[in-house]
Amino acid sequence: xxxxxxxxxxxxxxxxxxxxxxxxxxxxxxxxxxxxxxxxxxxxxxxxxxxxxxxxxxxxxxxxxxxxxxxxxxxxxxxxxxxxxxxxxxxxxxxxxxxxxxxxxxxxxxxxxxxxxxxxxxxxxxxxxxxxxxxxxxxxxxxxxxxxxxxxxxxxxxxxx
Length: 161
Hints:
The chain is an alpha+beta fold. It has helices at 2-12, 25-34, 62-73, 77-81, 130-139, and strands at residues 15-18, 21-23, 48-57, 91-99, 105-112, 121-127, 146-147.
């Protein structure tokens, strides 16, 4: 059952235990790892996140994982966005864009283990300057943004330009 839940979470970003309760597991985990918004130091009211890119983290693919990290750290967004590999039986490096209610963006890199008993771990948190944040936000579809707080509330999130 845990493998099915993990697969569903990876695909949808949500965990559904019963038809009436929807919890955005990704939002919960990102809030747990960050604790406070890195931009405004507040809670996550009116904040949003979007899954941006993902790659497999495996011994055989260390070079590819390092290239992914470099592209993210150097704000080469178009290149980073091309990483969309995921394998259910391998750890993953996942990139998220987080939008503060001020409009500023933060890039998060997370290590997401495939083992259900291991927790996700934040490995990088980079508050972006306005120019770089704007370039990243333009690559993320409006429909990909999800609320960062609240139980499963997935509604339209305002776009700040």
